[in-house]
Each structure stands twice: as structure tokens, then as C-alpha cells.
Design a protein that fits this description.
Elements lengths: L4 E5 L6 E9 L6 E5 L4 E5 L4 E2 L3 H9 L1 H14 L1
Antiparallel strand pairs: 1-2, 1-5, 2-3, 3-4
């Protein structure tokens, strides 16, 4: 299975945070994600979502294993 990534405005206000999609609501367009920047499970509203550039998406895919443990911990704690 290949994970899907989207972007969300960074909490620093500069650039995008990489977010791993967990689930999405087709009716509203909202998405439940794991935000790598904050390390938390969040809901990203349709209008907040950003498409990642190909090089950033590739970086996210190449570094998935570095975030897997943090992702699992966030799922347990949410």
C-alpha cells in the first residue's frame, strides 16, 4: 500500500507541513491526517489542503520509515 500525502500551511507561516492522509470525507472534502510538523492527528478542511510538489512528495515517501513510530504513537493517543 502506498501512502498519500498532502500539504497544510505550516505553523511557522512559512511553507507547507507534510501530512499523511488517514481518511477523507468525500461529501465535505475534509481529511484526517497525521501532521509530521506537529506530530498530531488533525482534521484538514477542504480549503486548507495544498497539493505537494513532486519533489516534496518524493521526500515524504522516502522518509516514511522515519515517521512510522511517531505516527503509530499519535494514532494510539488520539
Amino acid at each position: 500500500m502506498k501512502n498519500v500525502y498532502i500539504g497544510k500551511k505550516s505553523i511557522t507561516g512559512k511553507g507547507l507541513a507534510i501530512c499523511r492522509v488517514i481518511d477523507s470525507d468525500i461529501a465535505t472534502g475534509d481529511t484526517i491526517v497525521y501532521n509530521r510538523e506537529t506530530g498530531k492527528i488533525e482534521i484538514v478542511k477542504f480549503l486548507e489542503k495544498h497539493t505537494l510538489w513532486e519533489n516534496i512528495k518524493k521526500l515524504a515517501e522516502d522518509t516514511e520509515n522515519e515517521y512510522e513510530e511517531k505516527f503509530m504513537r499519535a494514532l494510539v493517543n488520539s
